[in-house]
Every structure is written in C-alpha cells, then in structure tokens.
Design goal:
Length: about 650
C-alpha cells in the first residue's frame, strides 16, 4: 500500500513522500485495512519505530473534525507538536500547563496535543472544545496500568466518550500481554504485531561475550577494573565504544542519577567525539555544578540525562543526539518512556532499582521499552540490545534470559480501585456535573477500564465509603446514607468545586483547608512567606525533596527558629521527617523569591537544577490553589498571592 493510495490531500501526500515515506509499513497498512481512515476505532500494539505516529496522523487527518493527541509527558507533547506542525495546511495547538485554565482558543486548531492531566482538567473546568472532537489519539495507552497516570487516563477516556459521542479513538501501545482487553474496552479493532522496520536482536553479556537471541555472539574486549573499579561499568564502556567505532550511537541505562553521571564521566575518558561547541551551548544554558559536569562530558560526545537536569539541558541533549552530534546518552529508565531518541545499540547495565525497601527487578515492559529504542529506520542496518548479567555464572545469565529476553511483557491492569484515585475522580465527576447521585457515579465508572476488567466487583460500597470521606472533608453533600443509598443525591460544595477545578487531590485540598484556617487564626505578624510555603509544600501533591544526614540538624534548627511562622507544631506531626523535608523546600523557595541564584541553591541544598525547576512550578500551582481555598473559607490571607507573584 502506497501513500498515494490514501485519502489524503495532495500536499500531505507530497509532504510524506518528501520525508521518504512512500510505501506503508505492514502495521500501517493493517491499520488502514481496519478502517483507521474511515473513522473506525483502533488499538495498535506494535513495537517502537514501527510507524505508530503515522497511524495517528492518518486518523487525525481524515477524521473530518478536530483531533486531540494525548501524551503522558510534556517533553513528548512538545516533540509531537513540532512533528504535527510540519503537516501542510494543518493548525496545531499544545496545552500542558495551567490546570485551572480552559484554553478555549484551542478550539481553533485542527490538532491539539495535550497531557492526560490537562485534558482531565479541561473537562473539569467545562472546556467546550472537548465536545467538538472527532478523533482522540492516546499515545502510550499501556500507561493505564501505572499507579500515577493510569486512573486519570481511563476516567478521562470514559468521560470523553460521554462529552463527544461517536468520537473515534485510536490507542497506541507498546507490545503488552493483553492488548485485546484494551481493544474490547474501547470497542476497537486490534492491530497487534512484533514487526519492526529494523531487526532487533537482544542478548545477555557475561564474561567478555554477548549471546544474542538470534544465536549470534559478540566478543567484547573490556578492560579489567582497577582496585576500585566496577566490572559492569568497564563492560558497558567496551560495549559503547564498540558501537561507536562501528558508526553507531548508544543508549546506556542505569538505575540512578548518580550512576548516570558516573558512567558518563567514565565514557568521556575515551573520548568518543569532539564537541566543544556543543559543550559551550550547555554552559550558556546554566553554570550549576550539574551543568558544568554535563558540559565536561558533552565535550567528549557523551551526555547524561535524568530528572535532576534542567529541562533546557535535557532538550539540548535529546536534539543533539537525534542530530547525531552526541554518541552516547547515559540515562535513568525514565528516558525509555519519554521522547524519541533511538540508537543502534542499547545497553541496560542495571536491571534492579531500589524501591525504598529493597533492590527489585525492573518490570519486563520497562526493559522491553529500553531495548526497543535500538535500531533506527534509514540510519541503522540493525538494532542491538544488551543486558548485563550480575555475575559470570550460568545461573545469572539464565535468569536474565528467562526474565527478560524470552519473557513476554506484563498485562495492563487498572489501578482505579486505589482509594486515593477513586476519591479524586468521584469528586471530579460530581463537581463537573457528570453525576448527581451515587447511581450516576457508578454509571460513569461502569465505562472505565477497571469495570471492564472486573465485571464481578461491586463498586457500590467502595464508592459509598469514598463519598463518606468527601462529605467529611466538606467537599460533597449527600442525601440519605452515603454508604448505602446509591440513589441519594450528591452535590459538590463550593469547596469541592474549587478543589476539583484547581486540579488538586481531595487530600491536598483538605490539607490546604487545615493550613489556611490555622494561618487565619495566627498572629498576623507571624504569617509570612514561610507560612504560605510550608502549607503548600506539606501537601500530597507536592513532590518532596531529599533531606541528607548532614543537613538534618541544620534544618531542625531552622524549623525551631521559625516555629511561630508554621501551621504545624514540631511535636504534632505524624511524620516529622516528611514535614522537615517540606520545611526544607519552603526554605529553598523563599530564598529563590528573595533573589538567591540557582547555582547557590543547588550547591547549598543538594537539589538538582531540574528538580528546583519542577518544584517551583508545582509551588506556583499550589499557591494558586491555596489562594482559591482561602477565598472559599473566608480567610483573608493575601500572602499566597504575594508569594506567587514573586516566583
């Protein structure tokens, strides 16, 4: 099947041909045969680099109305926005932030790219453009099984189908164990294949050799580690150097930020390339310790990539790698689920990570996604993925083969039944006007992936219990017995409506109410920027920060010295360590508002510049939510607005 055979405008056909796309890949042809250009619903469960984006574009370009492309990450949203903007005659919008805004101007675009959270928020705030959608594409739909994003994604999809009846849904997934479950839930056809445009062989390294699943082998000349050396790191260095010497690029995955930077320093000793101009570009974007270390590595053609790196540096690294200026990226596993940075060889050095309690094996799907980054169409003759065994004995090698090489990925399982998630979405559907009784809440939940997977589970009592929680939090009113009366009327209180529209969880809303009321009763002279920041930093929606042993005593003294400004007494908290971390973050943000430099904050508080960037954004959002909550409970606390304006 050729591009010229598709029902696309001539300029679009010419655009694809100019990009070297003339004949469709087998999965793309299968999608067309399944009716993706005729408004039919589709789930495409195919490997990375097998043409999922083209399938999405076919659906959106032929839908006969506005299209929405849902992504899990902001970085991926930006990448897709740039990709779709190249389509001739197509207007594209993007929405990833400002959860309390409806962004009505998005209705003017042919395609809107947005995160699932932004779409959920737009639904809650009554955005009318949602009702006009003709096509919804969901990227990485297997994230239905993730604890954080999964419940939001499935409730959003269930609600979208109510708001835009008859909408075409196209779901793009990695290869998972149960794609037919997702297809059945969405009433969609399934295109499932392991076909790839570039062949991929996966193998295990041990004792100087890689044995691949196609029965080929690769001898690796790894330097023996020194007295303080690491055999796995030296083997990784040898595997990377071999790929680069052969004209390829490499991705190396390790378990932590520290390991990513350490491996990058080791690889920069080779060196693999000469990139002084690129190193200068890194330095110009920021001269923190992290930025300096990154620039030093980049000069030798190596980069590290993790959440502690500021977003501008991550984007520079990703673009330089795609442009083949960089030879290798040392990354934590989050890169595998993010932007498109394929390479000829992928090396997975660490297959376990620390969970807070123990070292646990990575999920099979996560490892397969890392491996799937190997092999780029039109650039690489093949792709290789190499897993490093923890030892050279046969048992260690056999375990990796059984666990990852020959094993299939896990099934996608809904996480909506988690109490916190259900509490959030029950409030949302009531506050948004989609439900006015427990019966109507249950009716909407019946359209979720959870209900599809668990038809025998009685949600009535669970929803009743969640409603009781929300009534106690002053966010819902319920007629009848909340635990037993499924037909009883439900309504959001003014507070519940604000909490839902501000896109904070009910738990965070309750903490804000508690903090605001306490602050309102304090001596006005003690209500300072630290008061506002302690309230918002000590919420479930605020990602905390690390408190090192060496700074614990200093932070305790700081908290003691400012105790009168805090809404929580030091001897009256369920988790003192967690609260002290919140105080640390409040102190960091206060210093930022007072003009302290990023470089000084990073050095003084052992926080990555990327972490600081992300925390400041969340603080700004939560200060806005706290200000809205204060208005509802009639608390005169302008401090939230004042601090927000200083960010």
């Amino acid at each position: 099947m050729h591009v010229r055979d598709l029902p696309l405008p001539a300029p679009v056909q010419e655009h694809y041909e100019s990009e070297g796309i003339e004949e469709l890949y087998p999965p793309q042809a299968a999608a067309v045969e399944a009716g993706v250009t005729e408004g039919e619903r589709l789930v495409a469960a195919i490997p990375t680099a097998s043409g999922k984006t083209f399938i999405a574009e076919l659906a959106m370009l032929t839908a006969g109305g506005p299209a929405l492309y849902i992504v899990p990450l902001r970085a991926l949203a930006r990448e897709k926005y740039e990709t779709f903007s190249k389509l001739p005659g197509v207007s594209v919008g993007i929405s990833t932030g400002d959860f309390d805004a409806t962004d009505e101007d998005l209705a003017e675009n042919d395609i809107v790219v947005a995160t699932a959270e932004k779409v959920d928020s737009a639904i809650r705030t009554g955005a009318s453009w949602v009702e006009t959608l003709a096509c919804v594409v969901v990227d990485e739909v297997h994230l239905l099984g993730s604890d954080g994003r999964g419940p939001t994604l499935e409730v959003t999809l269930a609600t979208l189908q109510r708001r835009a009846p008859g909408v075409q849904i196209v779901a793009l997934s990695a290869t998972v164990d149960n794609p037919e479950d997702i297809a059945d839930w969405l009433d969609a056809d399934l295109v499932e294949t392991t076909w790839r445009p570039v062949s991929l062989r996966t193998g295990v390294y041990a004792d100087g050799d890689v044995a691949f699943d196609d029965e080929s082998t690769l001898a690796v000349d790894a330097e023996p580690p020194g007295p303080d050396g690491d055999g796995a790191t030296e083997a990784t260095a040898a595997l990377v150097a071999d790929a680069v010497d052969g004209g390829g690029q490499c991705l190396a995955f390790v378990r932590s930020r520290r390991e990513a930077e350490s491996l990058a320093r080791r690889l920069a000793m080779e060196p693999l390339a000469d990139c002084p101009e690129l190193a200068d570009a890194v330095s110009e974007l920021g001269r923190t310790e992290t930025g300096t270390r990154l620039a030093d590595a980049v000069e030798s053609g190596v980069a590290f990539h993790h959440a502690g790196v500021r977003s501008s540096h991550r984007a520079l690294v990703e673009n330089a790698f795609r442009e083949r200026k960089l030879k290798v990226i040392c990354a934590t596993p989050t890169l595998a689920a993010g932007v498109n940075v394929p390479a000829r060889r992928v090396v997975v050095r660490d297959l376990k990570r620390y969970t807070g309690e123990e070292m646990a094996w990575l999920p099979v799907l996560e490892v397969h996604q890392m491996c799937g980054r190997a092999g780029r169409p039109h650039l690489d003759p093949y792709g290789e993925a190499v897993l490093l065994a923890e030892g050279d004995d046969d048992a260690a090698v056999a375990e990796l083969w059984d666990r990852y090489v020959t094993a299939g990925p896990e099934a996608v399982e809904s996480k909506l039944a988690a109490r916190d998630a259900l509490r959030t979405h029950v409030l949302s559907v009531v506050a948004s006007g989609f439900a006015d009784s427990q019966e109507s809440v249950l009716d909407l939940l019946d359209a979720t992936f959870f209900a599809h997977q668990s038809p025998d589970v009685d949600l009535t009592r669970l929803v009743g219990s969640v409603v009781e929680d929300l009534v106690e939090m002053e966010m819902l009113t319920a007629g009848g017995d909340a635990a037993d009366d499924s037909a009883g009327a439900l309504a959001a209180t003014e507070l519940g409506g604000v909490v839902s529209r501000q896109y904070v969880t009910p738990e965070t809303g309750a903490r804000l109410v508690e903090g605001v009321r306490t602050a309102a009763g304090m001596d006005p002279g003690n209500v300072t920027a630290l008061t506002a920041l302690e309230i918002v930093c000590d919420t479930p929606d605020m990602h905390g920060t690390y408190l090192g042993n060496r700074e614990r005593a200093a932070m305790y003294r700081f908290a003691s010295g400012h105790a009168a400004e805090f809404t929580t007494a030091m001897n009256d908290t369920d988790d003192f360590e967690e609260w002290l971390c919140a105080v640390k973050l409040a102190r960091i943000v206060r210093e930022w508002t007072e003009g302290e430099s990023v470089e000084a904050i990073v050095e003084n508080y052992r926080i990555g510049p990327g972490d600081l960037e992300a925390r400041l954004e969340r603080v700004e959002w939560l200060l806005g939510a706290a200000d809205a909550v204060a208005a509802v409970v009639d608390a005169d606390l302008p401090v939230f607005r004042e601090v927000r304006e200083q960010l």
